[in-house]
Design a protein that fits this description.
heterotetramer, A alpha/beta (about 400), B mainly alpha (about 290), C alpha/beta (about 270), D mainly alpha (about 325), C: about 270 residues, alpha/beta, 6-stranded mixed sheet, 11 helices, about 35% helix, about 20% strand, globular, disordered N terminus, disordered C terminus, D: about 325 residues, mainly alpha, ABC transporter involved in vitamin B12 uptake, BtuC, 14 helices
C-alpha cells in the first residue's frame, strides 16, 4: 500500500522540477524585481469581468477603454501601452486572484477596471501595499475614503440616490416605497437617497431589500408595495434583476399607479432593450447619458458606435475617462520615465478632466465631482432610450 | 381575514404558477434519481437550453411558440440522451462521480450558451395574444402566467396520470421501489434509463420554453433552477411524482406568499423550509418504496 | 486457546435461574398487518435456542424486535431480567445482546482484522479516541486476532472483507458479533446461502462457543436447528405456537399442522429419521 | 528500515523539499496561488473527512470555513495579530458552529445530508451578507492586519513568508488528520461509511460519531478559514458560498474520495485551474474546471489517489496485495 504511492509522488517531484527550471526568480531572496520604466511599453492591467453575471458590464468597460486607445494610436501620455486583460469573474475571490496576478506576475504599472464593490474592497490592501495605482472605472463602495493609490472615474455608490432624493421629495405628493437588491450597493443607494430625501421632507412608506442574487420573481415584493398606498417607488437594480423587476412592475399593474424612480443602472445599456416598453416612463439619475450635447461626447459616441454598434453606457464612459486620466497622468509623470509612484502623484494633480459627461474634478476621496442628470425612458425614433430631462446638480 | 386574503391573493395565485413551473423541472430530476439512482446536476442546464430556445424562436406568434416547443422537446430529448449516455459508464460508482460529471458538463454547457447568446438576461416575450395583464378579482395579473397555470396543470395532470395509472408508469414505480427485482424480471434497465432520462430532460426543456417569460434565460439561471428543483425533490421525496408535485406547490407558496408575508426573511425562507421538512422527515414527505 | 477469558463477561445469569432473554407479550403491527402478535417465551441462560416457523411466521420481525432494530408496538423484552424494551439497538448491544445479520453485513472496505477491531475497540471504550494509531494498541490487536483465530480466519486477517469468500464472510460475521463479548448472541439465519459443508463448519463454531454465551438463532435450515438447538420455539402467523426441546416440538401436532401445506413440511419430518 | 520505508522516506523528503523551495523559485503570484491551494487543501481535507471517510457527502463545509475566516479576521482586527490566537479562536468558533448545527445535519444521510448541509451553507452565506455590523456585509471585511507569528514579531507581508506560515499550519493539519485516521476514531468513521447498521449492532450510537466527525470537520474547515483570512487579508460572504463548497467537494472527488493526499492534490489542481490557468485563457475558467471534472471522472475513476491502482495493473508488481482499505 505504501509502494503504490511512488508513481504519483515521483510525478509531483518531476513536475515541480520541470517548472523550477522553467521559471526564474523567486519571492524570497530572488530580489530581482524590476521597476517598470525606461524602455518598452507601459503595462496597464484591465481588470474586468469576462465571465459570470457581470460580463456585459465588463464588455462595455473594455470597449470604452479601447476606444480611447484607438483614438490615440495606442499611446497614453506619449508612450506606447500594453493592456493586459484579467478576468474579474463574479466573486471577490476570483477578482482578487486576478488582481493579484496583474500586480505580482505581470508587474503592471497601473490597473483599471473593477466592476464589483466586493472585489474593490478586497483589493484595497493589495494596491496600497504594492503602491500601484488603481484607476477604478465602476465599483465604488462608500467605505473607501482613505486610500492613497485608489481612484475612481465613476461615482460613489450612494451618489445616484443622493442626487435624486431631494427632487423626488419635491415631486411626489405622498409616501415613497423603497425596494433594492440586498447587498451593499443597494443599501448605499437607498442610504444616499434618503439622506437628501429626508432632508427635503420626504415621507417613507417602507424599505425592503430583496435577496441578491437569486430573486427572479419580484411579485410578492411588488404586491406589498402596491398595497402600501405609496405614491412612488425608488428602486436599485442592475443587470438581469433590473430587467425582471421592470417587466414585473409593469405586469403586476404598478406601472401607471406608482411612479418609478431609480438609480440609472436600472435602464443602462442592454437591459433597456430587454425591458422593452415596460420601461417607458421610468425616471433615473445618472452621471452620463449618450445624448449629452458636447463635442467630446459626440465624437465618443460616434467612435463607440462604430466599434460596437451600441450606444455607450456610463460604464463605457467611465472606462474611457480612466484611459483619459492615465493619458494625462503618464504625460505629466514624464512619459517614458513614468513609474507607478510618479503616475499616482500625477493623477492626484490632475485639475480637471474633459469628459463626454462634461468637465469634472477630483473630490477629496479621489472620485469625480460631477453633474448629475435626471433621465426618463422615452421612445425616440421607434427605439427606447434614456432621455435627459434636467440636471440634478453637482455632487 | 378578507383584507388579508385580498392583499395576498395575487401572491397565492402566483405561487401556483411558480410551483407548477418547478414541478415540470423537478419531476424529471426526481424520477431519474429515484429510478436510476443517478444524481443529475446538469438538470438546470436543460431548463436553460429550453429557455434559450424559446428566446431564439418565439416571435410573438403562436406558430413561433409551437416551433419553440417542438425544438425544445427535441433539444431536451437529445440532451437527456446524451446525459444518459454520459452517465451510463459510471454505473455502480456512486452519486459523487455522477455529481462531478454532470456538474462538469453543466459548466461546459453554460460557457457554450454564453458564447451563443451572450451574458445578458434575455427576457422572452410570450405570444402577443398572451402578453399584457388582466384584472383578476380586482388585481392586475399577467395573462401569460394565467395561461401558464392552465397549461402546466394539464401537463402535471398528464404526467401524474401516466405515472400513477398507466402500465409504463407501473413499471417505473416498480423500478423505483426495487431496481434489482425489475432487472431480474427481464426488463432492460438501460432502456429504462434512457427512457426516463429523455422524458425528464424533455419535460425540463419544455418547462424552459414555457417558463422563459417567467424565469428568463441568462447566465446563472441553470444553477438557480437546479437548486430549486433539488429542494423540491428532496422535500417531496426522491422518486415520487406526487411528492414532486406537492413539494413544488409548497415551495411555490413559500417563495411567493411566504416572501410577501415576511419579506425581510426572504433569503432564508427557501432553505429554512427545506431544513424544517428534512428535520421532521429526512426521507422527504412522500418517500416511495419505504415503510 | 481460550478466547472466552477476554470475550465473555463472567457468566452472568447462568446460575441464578433468571432467563438470559425474556420475551413478554411482544407485538408488532404494520398498519393492519399483525406481523408479531403477543409472543411470549424465555431463553434460558447458556442455552442454544432456535426460533423456527414457516414463511411469514414473523421470525424476521421478532428478531428485529429483540435486537432493537424495530420498535415494538407492545410487550417487553428483558435481558437478564432487565427491561430493555425502550432501549435502542446500540444500547442493547452494549448490554451484551448482540446480533448478526442474515446477509453478511460487514465493513467491506476494511480488513477482516479491522472488522473485528471495530467491535473490540467499542468494548474497550476507546472507539472515539482520536489519538494513537490502532496499530500501536497491542491489547486491541491481540484480542481481535484471538477472535479471528477462534473462527479460523487468522490467516485472512489482512484481507479486505470485500475480498473474502462467501463462507469466510459468514465466519467474519459471527466473529464481529463475538468480539463484542455478548452474553446473548442473536444469529439471523446464519446458514442462509451456505453450502452444506459451510453449514457443517458453522455448526461446529457455534457448538464451540463458550457455555456462558447464550445463543438465540432464527433459522430456516432445520438440519442446523436440530443439530444445534437444545430448545426450539415455533412461530406461526405471527403467534407463538410452542417452545420446547426438539423432541417435544417434533411431536407437536400443532407444529405439524402449521407446517402442513408449507414447503418445509417434508424437511421437518425427514428430520425424525436423521 | 526496509527498502519500502527507505523509498517512502525519500519521497516524503522530496515532496517536503519541493514545498519548501516554492518561494525561492517562483514569483509572487505563483507563490500566492500555492498559498491559496494550501488553504483550500485544508478545507478539502475537512470535506474529505466527512465525505470520503465517514461517508457523509457535504456541501456545507464552506459555512464553517466562513465562520473561521470571519472569526480570524475579527480577532485580527479587534484583538490580536498573533496567528496562533486567531487559529485557536477560529477553530473553536468552527467547533461551536458545528456543534450547534450538526444535530440537524446528521438527521439525514446521503442526498438528504448533502441537501441539509447545502441549506446550512446557503443560510450562512445569506446571514454573512446581512450582518453588516459584524461582517461588513456583502462588500466584505477588510482591514485585517498582517499576521504575526511570534509575540513582538513583525507582521508577515512578504508572499513567501505568508506561504511558509500557511504551509506549517497545513502540514500540522495534515498530520493531525493522518493521526485521526489511524486512531480508533478514524476506524469508527470508516465503519460508519461502510455499514452504519452493523456499527449500531455492535454497540455504537452512530449518530454521536457522525456528529463527532461533523464537529471535527467543522473545526478543521474553520482553521482553514483563519488561514484564508490571514493570507488574503479580506473575507467576503462569497467565501462561505456555494461555489467554495462545491469546488471543495469536487476537489475531493477529483483527488480520490477517502484519500487525504489525494484531496490535497485535488484542491491544488482546482485552485490552479481556476486562478492560474483560468487567467491564462482569461474568462474561461469555468470551461476549464468543467473539462477537468469531466476528464477526471472518466480517466481517473478513483481520483488521482486511485490512479496508482490503475498504473499498478499496467505494471504489475511481484508481491500480491489485497485491495486493503486506504487509511490515508
Amino acid at each position: 500500500m505504501r509502494a503504490r504511492r511512488t508513481p504519483i509522488l515521483i510525478a509531483v517531484a518531476a513536475a515541480t522540477a520541470l517548472t523550477l527550471s522553467a521559471c526564474g526568480g523567486g519571492t524570497l531572496g530572488g530580489g530581482d524585481e524590476e521597476e517598470a520604466g525606461s524602455g518598452g511599453p507601459i503595462k496597464i492591467g484591465l481588470l474586468v469581468p469576462q465571465s459570470g453575471v457581470y460580463k456585459s458590464l465588463g464588455d462595455d468597460m473594455k470597449a470604452g477603454f479601447e476606444v480611447y486607445l484607438e483614438e490615440h494610436d495606442n499611446m497614453l501620455g506619449g508612450v506606447e501601452v500594453e493592456v493586459i486583460l484579467a478576468d474579474e469573474g463574479e466573486t471577490a475571490d476570483s477578482g482578487k486572484a486576478a488582481a493579484d496576478k496583474l500586480v505580482k506576475q505581470d508587474e503592471v504599472t497601473v490597473v483599471t477596471g473593477v466592476v464589483s464593490s466586493a472585489v474593490m474592497n478586497g483589493v484595497v490592501d493589495l494596491f496600497e501595499t504594492s503602491k500601484i495605482p488603481l484607476v477604478g472605472s465602476n465599483a465604488s463602495p462608500t467605505t473607501l475614503t482613505d486610500a492613497t493609490y485608489i481612484w475612481r472615474t465613476s461615482y460613489v455608490n450612494d451618489q445616484p440616490g443622493e442626487a435624486l432624493g431631494a427632487y423626488v421629495a419635491e415631486q411626489v405628493d405622498g409616501s415613497v416605497y423603497f425596494l433594492a437588491a440586498d447587498y451593499q450597493a443597494g443599501l448605499d443607494e437607498v442610504t444616499g437617497f434618503k439622506r437628501s430625501f429626508d432632508a427635503a421632507g420626504g415621507e417613507t412608506a417602507d424599505e425592503v431589500y430583496t435577496p441578491f442574487p437569486g430573486t427572479t420573481n419580484f411579485q410578492p415584493f411588488l404586491a406589498n408595495a402596491n398595497s402600501s398606498g405609496a405614491e412612488a417607488l425608488f428602486s436599485f437594480y442592475a443587470g438581469g434583476a433590473a430587467v425582471e423587476f421592470v417587466k414585473q412592475y409593469d405586469q403586476f399593474g404598478l406601472k401607471g399607479q406608482i411612479d418609478h424612480y431609480s438609480a440609472g443602472f436600472l435602464t443602462e445599456g442592454g437591459v433597456l432593450d430587454a425591458q422593452g416598453e415596460s420601461a417607458l416612463g421610468t425616471f433615473t439619475a445618472m452621471n452620463y447619458n449618450f445624448d449629452l450635447e458636447n463635442e467630446l461626447n459626440a465624437s465618443f459616441v460616434e467612435a463607440y458606435e462604430a466599434k460596437t454598434g451600441l450606444k455607450p453606457t456610463t460604464y463605457a464612459m467611465a472606462s474611457y475617462d480612466a484611459a483619459h486620466v492615465l493619458d494625462l497622468a503618464i504625460e505629466a509623470a514624464g512619459g517614458e520615465d513614468a513609474d507607478s509612484e510618479s503616475i499616482n502623484t500625477a493623477i492626484g494633480e490632475i485639475e480637471k478632466v474633459e469628459s463626454p459627461r462634461g468637465t469634472w474634478t477630483w473630490s477629496e476621496i479621489g472620485t469625480p465631482v460631477q453633474t448629475w442628470y435626471l433621465r426618463e425612458v422615452q421612445e425616440v425614433d421607434g427605439t427606447l432610450a434614456n432621455v435627459v430631462i434636467q440636471e440634478l446638480g453637482e455632487l | 381575514m378578507s383584507g388579508w386574503f385580498n392583499a395576498h391573493f395575487v401572491s397565492m395565485v402566483d405561487g401556483v404558477a411558480y410551483g407548477l413551473l418547478l414541478f415540470t423541472l423537478a419531476v424529471g430530476l426526481s424520477l431519474v434519481f429515484g429510478m436510476m439512482d443517478v444524481l443529475n446536476l446538469a438538470h438546470g442546464t436543460l431548463y436553460l437550453a429550453g429557455a434559450y430556445t424559446a428566446y431564439a424562436l418565439s416571435d410573438g406568434s403562436w406558430l413561433g411558440l409551437l416551433i419553440a416547443l417542438v425544438v425544445g422537446l427535441v433539444v431536451g430529448l437529445l440532451g437527456g440522451g446524451l446525459l444518459a449516455a454520459a452517465v451510463a459508464p459510471l454505473q455502480g460508482r456512486g452519486h459523487l462521480d455522477q455529481a462531478a460529471l454532470t456538474l462538469g458538463i453543466s459548466l461546459i454547457a453554460a460557457e457554450v450558451m454564453v458564447m451563443l447568446f451572450g451574458a445578458e438576461v434575455l427576457p422572452t416575450a410570450p405570444p402577443s395574444a398572451l402578453s399584457g395583464s388582466v384584472s383578476v378579482l380586482g388585481h392586475t395579473y399577467p395573462v401569460y402566467r394565467l395561461a401558464f397555470i392552465g397549461i402546466a396543470t394539464l401537463l402535471a395532470a398528464l404526467v401524474y396520470l401516466a405515472f400513477e395509472r398507466s402500465s409504463v408508469g407501473a413499471l417505473v414505480r416498480a423500478t423505483v421501489a426495487d431496481r434489482d427485482m425489475v432487472r431480474t424480471m427481464g426488463v432492460d434497465t438501460r432502456k429504462v434509463l434512457f427512457g426516463v432520462f429523455g422524458f425528464g430532460a424533455a419535460l425540463a426543456a419544455v418547462g424552459g420554453v414555457l417558463g422563459a417569460p417567467i424565469i428568463a434565460p441568462g447566465p446563472g439561471i441553470d444553477e438557480r433552477v437546479l437548486v430549486l428543483s433539488l429542494v423540491v425533490v428532496v422535500i417531496g421525496g426522491l422518486g415520487s411524482v406526487r411528492g414532486a408535485l406537492l413539494g413544488a406547490l409548497l415551495i411555490g407558496q413559500v417563495q411567493t406568499l411566504g416572501v410577501a408575508l415576511v419579506p425581510s426573511y426572504a433569503p432564508f425562507l427557501l432553505f429554512g423550509a427545506m431544513l424544517l421538512v428534512l428535520a421532521l422527515r429526512p426521507q422527504g414527505l412522500f418517500a416511495p418504496g419505504r415503510a | 486457546m481460550n478466547a472466552s477469558q477476554h470475550v465473555v463477561p463472567g457468566g452472568r445469569g447462568s446460575a441464578d435461574g433468571v432467563p438470559a432473554l425474556g420475551v413478554e407479550g411482544l407485538s408488532r403491527h404494520f398498519g393492519s398487518l399483525r406481523a408479531v402478535q403477543e409472543v411470549t417465551f424465555e431463553v434460558r441462560a447458556g442455552s442454544r435456542h432456535a426460533v423456527i416457523g414457516p414463511n411469514g411466521a414473523g421470525k424476521s420481525t421478532l428478531f428485529a424486535l429483540i435486537a432493537g432494530a424495530l420498535p415494538a408496538t407492545s410487550g417487553r423484552v428483558r435481558l437478564h431480567g432487565d427491561d430493555v424494551t425502550s432501549m435502542a439497538e446500540y444500547a442493547r448491544a452494549n448490554r451484551g445482546l448482540v446480533r448478526t445479520f442474515q446477509h453478511s453485513s460487514l465493513f467491506l472496505s476494511a480488513t477482516a482484522r479491522e472488522n473485528v477491531l471495530l467491535a473490540v475497540q467499542r468494548r474497550h471504550g476507546v472507539q472515539a479516541s482520536p489519538w494513537r494509531s490502532v496499530t500501536r494498541r497491542r491489547a486491541l490487536l491481540e484480542e481481535a486476532d484471538e477472535v479471528l483465530a477462534q473462527l479460523g480466519l487468522l490467516d485472512r486477517a489482512g484481507a479486505a472483507a470485500g475480498a473474502l469468500s462467501h463462507g469466510e464472510r459468514r465466519q467474519l460475521e459471527v466473529a464481529v458479533a463475538l468480539a463484542t463479548a455478548p452474553s446473548v448472541l442473536l444469529l439471523d439465519e446464519p446458514a442462509a446461502g451456505m453450502s452444506p459443508a459451510d453449514t457443517q463448519a458453522f455448526q461446529q463454531i457455534v457448538l464451540g462457543l463458550p457455555q456462558e454465551v447464550t445463543v438465540l438463532l432464527v433459522e430456516h435450515d432445520l438440519d442446523l436447528v436440530f443439530g444445534l438447538a437444545d430448545t426450539v420455539t415455533v412461530l406461526h402467523l405471527g403467534e407463538h405456537l410452542i417452545t420446547g426441546d426438539p423432541e417435544q416440538v417434533r411431536a407437536s401436532e400443532a407444529v405439524q399442522s402449521a407446517y402442513l401445506g408449507a414447503e418445509d413440511t417434508s424437511d421437518l419430518f425427514l428430520e425424525e429419521g436423521s | 528500515m526496509n527498502s519500502l520505508q527507505v523509498r517512502r522516506t525519500l519521497l516524503v523528503g522530496l515532496v517536503a523539499f519541493a514545498l519548501l523551495m516554492v518561494p525561492w523559485v517562483f514569483g509572487a503570484f505563483t507563490v500566492s496561488t500555492f498559498t491559496r491551494a494550501l488553504v483550500f487543501a485544508v478545507l478539502a481535507m475537512a470535506v474529505n473527512l466527512l465525505t470520503g471517510v465517514a461517508g457523509l457527502p457535504t456541501l456545507g463545509q464552506a459555512a464553517y470555513f466562513g465562520v473561521g475566516a470571519y472569526t480570524g479576521a475579527l480577532v485580527s482586527i479587534h484583538w490580536s495579530e498573533l496567528g496562533i490566537v486567531q487559529l485557536l479562536v477560529a477553530t473553536l468558533a468552527g467547533v461551536v458552529a458545528a456543534v450547534l448545527t450538526g444535530p440537524l445535519a446528521i438527521r439525514g444521510r446521503g442526498v438528504a445530508f448533502l441537501m441539509i448541509t447545502l441549506a446550512i451553507g446557503e443560510i450562512g452565506y445569506s446571514a454573512a451578507g446581512r450582518l453588516d455590523a459584524v461582517t461588513g456585509g456583502t462588500d466584505g471585511l477588510s482591514g485585517i492586519l498582517p499576521v504575526v507569528v511570534l509575540p513582538g514579531g513583525e507582521g508577515l507581508v512578504n508572499e513567501g513568508l505568508i506561504y511558509y506560515y500557511v504551509l506549517v499550519v497545513a502540514v500540522l493539519a495534515y498530520l493531525g488528520v493522518g493521526m485521526l485516521l489511524r486512531s480508533p476514531f478514524g476506524l469508527t468513521l470508516r465503519g460508519l461509511r461502510d455499514n452504519e447498521a452493523r456499527l449500531r449492532a455492535v454497540g455504537y450510537r452512530t449518530d454521536a460519531y457522525a456528529l463527532g466527525a461533523f464537529v471535527y470537520a467543522g473545526g478543521l474547515a474553520a482553521l482553514a478559514g483563519s488561514l484564508w483570512a490571514s493570507s488574503q487579508r479580506f473575507v467576503a460572504p462569497g467565501d462561505m458560498g456555494f461555489e467554495i463548497a462545491a469546488l471543495a467537494l469536487l476537489a475531493v472527488i477529483v483527488g480520490g474520495v477517502g484519500s487525504m493526499w489525494g484531496a490535497c492534490l485535488g484542491a491544488a489542481l482546482v485552485v490552479f485551474t481556476r486562478d492560474y490557468f483560468g487567467q491564462i485563457v482569461s474568462g474561461h475558467a469555468p470551461l476549464l474546471l468543467g473539462t477537468l471534472f469531466v476528464l477526471a471522472v472518466y480517466l481517473l475513476p478513483k481520483g488521482i489517489a486511485g490512479g496508482r491502482a490503475q498504473w499498478r495493473t499496467l505494471f504489475p508488481r511481484s508481491h500480491a496485495e489485497h485491495p486493503t482499505a486506504e487509511v490515508r
